[in-house]
Specification:
Strand order of the largest sheet: 5-4-13-8-9
Radius of gyration: 25 Å
Number of domains: 3
Structural class: alpha+beta
Bound molecules: ligand MTE, molybdenum atom
Distance between the termini: 21 Å
Shape: globular
């Protein structure tokens, strides 16, 4: 069942190690971005609505990079079962949402769509693909230092693409849907909700009865089985990730540091020192297993992994420098790319912060921060300063981190930040299984323990979150590592299931957008 797609890409100085050949269809999108950004003229052939030959060429080549050619007017139930024909006619899932055309948005990201190096520099791991939520976490932030809003660009790109407008009969409803309040939302988020059936109360037993009396075969109008006693049989554990599944995030230009020239300068200590790599290697080495999650890991996303780490504890580094100079409260790191953070020294020591020299039993790769990454266990990946070249102990205020506040309600849509869960199996929507067949299920839950928060439960639902089957996370689990669930689930009814999982913390707060996966169950 498990299939590993993720590849750690090794940049030769750029964040994007691999560059996919442009096909006509992607070239058309790339061109639209270049025009929108007012950059140099495109070198690839232009595809216009009237250029039929180019359009046919684009369509012929789409298979190469995973672009599926859909047609909005050829109705398709897609990832949903079709029951009595409602889904083919009314939902048209097969022609809607990002992934109906872009099987994996990694192809889009890793092509020429961004005028500068894209932060995300690896394909999705754990057998998964990137979807809309993997983009929207950063691109809807609209913060000064966040990613640009993509909504306006995406509209330009699609309406400038003859593949979308003409060949695929694309329109607003290819990507959008309205919710019960009449607001325009993304089809990719709305399809997991009860409202997608046409009834906001799809999990209500009286609706079930109403549909039964009208001769509808299943429990909801769009053939979604409403199972309010979900029996899921999983064990919890804290395994390490396969390295190939681990994501890469490079915010700035990737520096290439050499072992010979590398130095780490430590100031604000009693004996200020400049360490070479060999001297760091000769200090006491400590091993740990720690989960790294990108702060922008979305609900059901893959920007997370559990890493076996080896390196020098901050406490040992401080000792090698004769202690922190009197009065200093804060440590400020700088990476060779100028990324870095300030944190309270006591907090860092409590979290067992370390200077990592190895991940998975080998030296760090360039993308992992070669030769040295400052690891902050229990805190989101953005604080793990890679390529760290200077550490200064001082009396400054720590970096203000408004984003780090544990404020689930204040987060946008799928953006979960410090509390998250996801499915690894089934890895993709539309996975087809048989009634009575044991389906392998697996996934993770994690809670950043930045402010002492602890993951206490993992909960599952197959009735749009009306009822939850909860599992307690064992008290002896390490809160600085994720909790994985793994086991089976045996569906007993034909139809579409929307399986959901969410993380719940010890104070009762929980992930507000559960991770959903659509499963097609047939007789
Ligand atoms: N120097 C430096 N450190 C950095 C970054 C960066 O851009 N530069 N990105 C941060 C972010 S946002 C994340 S999620 C992690 C990603 O680490 P990885 O690529 O090893 O998975 O590194 C963090 N450390
Ligand atoms: Mo990140």
């Amino acid at each position: 069942m498990k299939r590993t797609m993720g590849k750690k890409t090794e940049g030769k100085g750029g964040g994007l190690g691999r560059r996919l050949a442009l096909t006509g269809a992607v070239a058309a999108l790339a061109l639209a971005v270049v025009v929108a950004a007012g950059c140099q003229p495109a070198t690839t052939a232009e595809v216009t609505a009237t250029d039929t030959a180019a359009q046919e060429q684009a369509l012929a080549e789409t298979g190469v990079d995973g672009m599926a050619v859909t047609n909005f007017q050829e109705l398709s139930a897609g990832d949903f079962t079709d029951g009595d024909g409602f889904n083919g006619r009314n939902m048209n899932d097969g022609n809607r949402g990002c992934n109906s055309c872009h099987a994996d948005l990694w192809t889009t990201i890793s092509g020429d769509v961004a005028p500068i190096q894209h932060v995300l520099a690896s394909a999705a791991g754990y057998g998964k693909t990137y979807g809309w939520t993997d983009c929207t976490t950063c691109h809807t932030f609209n913060a000064a230092l966040g990613a640009p809003r993509l909504d306006t660009r995406i509209h330009n790109i699609h309406y400038a693409s003859a593949t979308f407008t003409d060949a695929e009969n694309g329109n607003c409803w290819s990507c959008h849907e309205t919710n019960a309040d009449g607001e325009l939302v993304m089809y990719d988020e709305q399809k997991y909700t009860a409202e997608a059936s046409g009834y906001a109360n799809a999990a209500d037993p009286s609706l079930d009865n109403w549909l039964r009396l009208r001769g509808r075969s299943n429990h909801s109008a769009n053939d979604v089985v409403i199972d309010n006693a979900l029996a899921i049989n999983v064990d919890l554990s804290q395994p390490t990730s396969d390295e190939a599944d681990m994501y890469v995030a490079n915010n700035y230009v990737v520096p290439e540091l050499s072992a010979e020239d590398y130095t780490l300068t430590v100031t604000g200590v009693n004996n200020e020192r400049t360490f070479t790599l060999d001297v760091l290697r000769a200090l006491p080495q400590t091993e740990a297993v720690v989960t790294q999650d990108c702060f922008t890991n979305a609900s059901n996303s893959v920007l997370i992994g559990n890493i076996p780490i080896k390196g020098v504890l901050l406490a040992d580094l401080i000792e090698a420098c004769g202690g922190v100079a009197d009065g200093n409260t804060t440590l400020t790191n700088a990476g060779a790319d100028e990324w870095g953070h300030s944190n309270n020294i006591d907090f860092l020591l409590e979290q067992n912060a370390m200077i990592a020299l190895e991940y998975w039993g080998h030296e760090l790769t360039v993308n992992q921060g070669y030769p040295v990454t400052f690891v902050l266990p229990g805190v989101s990946g953005l604080m793990w300063d890679k390529w760290v070249v200077s550490m200064d102990f001082n009396t400054n205020d720590p970096t203000p981190n408004p984003w780090m506040l544990y404020d689930v309600a204040g987060m946008k849509r799928q953006f979960q930040g410090t509390i998250c869960a996801g499915w690894f199996s089934p890895a993709k929507d539309g996975t087809e299984v048989k009634v009575g067949e044991a389906v392998p299920v697996s996934g993770y839950a994690y809670l950043d323990n930045y402010a002492g928060h602890e993951l206490s439960q993992i909960a599952f639902s197959a009735d749009y979150g009306t009822t939850w089957t909860t599992l307690d996370v064992p008290a002896d689990f390490d809160q600085k590592q994720w909790t994985r669930f793994e086991g089976t689930w045996t569906p007993d009814t034909a139809g579409t299931y929307i399986l959901q999982v969410k993380a719940i913390d010890a104070a009762g707060s929980e992930q507000y957008v559960p991770a959903s996966v659509i499963v097609k169950v047939t007789e």
